[in-house]
Structure formats: C-alpha cells, structure tokens
Specification:
- With about 325 residues, the chain is mostly helical.
- The chain folds into two domains: about 15-65, no CATH class; about 70-285, no CATH class.
- It is built from 13 helices and eight strands.
- The chain has a three-stranded antiparallel β-sheet. A three-stranded antiparallel β-sheet has the order 6-8-7. Strands 1-2 form a two-stranded antiparallel sheet.
- The radius of gyration is 32 Å and the shape is elongated.
C-alpha cells in the first residue's frame, strides 16, 4: 500500500487507518518499509504476500545463474581454447595461444606435439622459434625441480611473455642443490660469465658435446636455465638419433639442432630471504593473476583453480 495517502481508497481518516495498520503490525499480519523505490513515503504490505514476492524474486535470480550441464561447459571451453574449428594462424595467432596459456606448465614434449598444432592452423616450429628468438617470449620451468630426477620430455615447461615471468615466478632458485657435478659446472659458468652459446659451453667446460647436452637437460628439468630459442629445448627432447649425438663430419658445420638454440642463460636467483611483498604490490599481483585466469578459461571456478600450480592461497 503506497504511503502518500493510504486513506483515500477506503474513504477513511488517515489517523484511523494508521491505528488499524499498527494493530495489524503488532499481530504480525502487516509490515512497513520501502518496498517500491518508485513510491515516496512509508509503505505497508501483508507479511505472507511479501514473503511470497521475495521467494519468487530469489527463485527467478537463481534460474538466471543456474549451472549449465558439463556438456555445455565443455562446448564453451573447447571454443574458448580454439579447439572447435576456430584455430588461429601465423605468428601472431601463435602468440595469442601462448598468452592464453601464460603461466600454465605442461610437459615439454606436449607443446609442439599436442597443444600448438591443435590450436594453430598449419603450425610449424619456426613460428615458436620466431617468438622466442626475438625475445618476446621465454620458456622455462616455473617451479623448482630436483636435478637429474625429472626426464626432460615430461618436465613441466611454461612459455610466456618475458615481462610476465616475475608474475608467475616471484622467487628464483637459491642454490644448485641436487645437481650432478657436470650440471653444477655449467650452471656456475653461466652465472659467472653470463649467457653463452652451446659451443662456448663446450669449450669453456672441457666437456664433450653430449655431456654438455645432458647437463643442460638436467638444468632445464630443474628449472635453472633457459635459452634464447625453443630450438634448444626441442633438441633436448628429440630422440638421440637426430639430436646432439649426431656425428660431426670433418670440414662441415655441425648439423645439431641444439646449435640453433641461441644463447643459454641461468635463470636469475632472487633473494628468497628478502622482504616480502607489500600489501599494495600483492594486491596488484593478485589482480593480474585473476585477469590471466579469466583470459585462459573464460569462466573461473574453484575446481579450475585447483588445477593451477603456483597460485597464492
């Protein structure tokens, strides 16, 4: 009942009507309040009618946000991930796929065997090489592994823009624990002398090419090093017959794919004992992570977050 002149419809004095409404309110049959923002003044409503209106409103809102079936969600996710006949093309399309997967680690061998070919039409390795050699994107293991204990093919590797590495990897390795002597030697060379080509590592370390390649694979699997191009990781993943064990012919340039990796470099070892993030910096980081997750999945829910590694609590 509107509150402007409640007595007019019943031809009763306002004072008598107010007394009657007060009695009904005391008995629990009527309630007063502001139920319609479009009307001015105090308003009255029958209690059970108001409860029914509220119940219908809540049920209508729940229907609008009712969960869809798993099949409907999978159709959406397949389209969002470019797996429903909407593949991208070229180097920019490849970059868009990598941006969607930024911070997501998968087995190293799966990037070019499953992920990129399924989403990029006519995918060729030079597309990924162009993005990494240019410095726009970097590949690395985000979480620290145990040296020599993770096969390079199954080591979880992420590929993301160089400026986003700090977002997903706020703390770097503090010590070269669990590494073999050869891997430790190469890591020390890279930390002392900076980025080095594969030939430089062979010459400076005094190791055989196969020994250097094996040690680099160990360092990659442990999350200690990366390279300019993806060709280096591809060479470590490839079978031995077509990788660095290929024999060199006298007078010919080595055909080993690992020589096309560019420079190998140690990942920066950040001070894990330093000051923690300020509340403002942590808030900015959380917001950036949330935007990245929405870009990756389109819809984010708790079970999706449980599949992610390296997220803050």
């Amino acid at each position: 009942m509107p509150g402007t002149d409640p007595g007019r419809p019943l031809a009763l004095p306002v004072s008598d009507l107010e007394q009657a409404l007060a009695a009904l309110e005391q008995e629990g049959f009527a309630v007063r309040g502001r139920f319609d923002p479009g009307l001015a003044g105090e308003q009255w409503c029958e209690r059970w009618l108001l409860a029914r209106i509220n119940r219908y409103t809540v049920e209508g809102l729940r229907k609008e946000i009712a969960p869809v079936s798993p099949a409907a969600y999978m159709r959406f996710l397949l389209y969002w991930q470019g797996l429903a006949g909407n593949r991208v093309e070229g180097i920019e399309g490849t970059g868009a796929v990598l941006d969607r997967f930024a911070g997501f680690s998968i087995p190293a061998a799966a990037w070019e065997a499953e992920v990129l070919p399924a989403r990029v039409a006519a995918y060729t390795p030079d597309l990924l090489d162009g993005l990494t050699v240019s410095g726009r994107y970097v590949w690395l293991r985000l979480d620290l592994g145990q040296g020599g204990k993770t096969p390079i093919r199954t080591a979880p590797i992420a590929i993301l823009r160089r400026e986003m590495v700090a977002l997903w990897r706020p703390n770097g390795p503090a010590a070269a624990n669990g590494l073999s002597s050869r891997a430790g030697l190469l890591l020390e060379l890279l930390q002392d002398r900076g980025a080095r080509f594969f030939a430089d590592l062979v010459r400076d370390s005094g190791l055989l090419r196969t020994e250097v390649a094996t040690a680099l694979g160990e360092l990659v699997a442990a999350g200690r090093v990366t390279a300019d191009g993806f060709a280096g990781l591809r060479a470590l993943i490839a079978p031995a017959a077509s990788s660095v064990t290929t024999c060199r012919r006298r007078g010919n340039v080595s055909p080993d794919p690992i020589d096309r990796a560019g420079r190998w470099d140690a990942l920066p070892a950040l001070d894990t004992d330093g000051e923690s993030e300020s509340p403002a910096a942590q808030s900015v980081r959380l917001e950036e992570l949330a935007h990245q997750l929405i870009q990756r999945y389109g819809l984010v829910m708790r079970r999706i977050l449980e599949r992610e590694r390296g997220l803050p609590p």
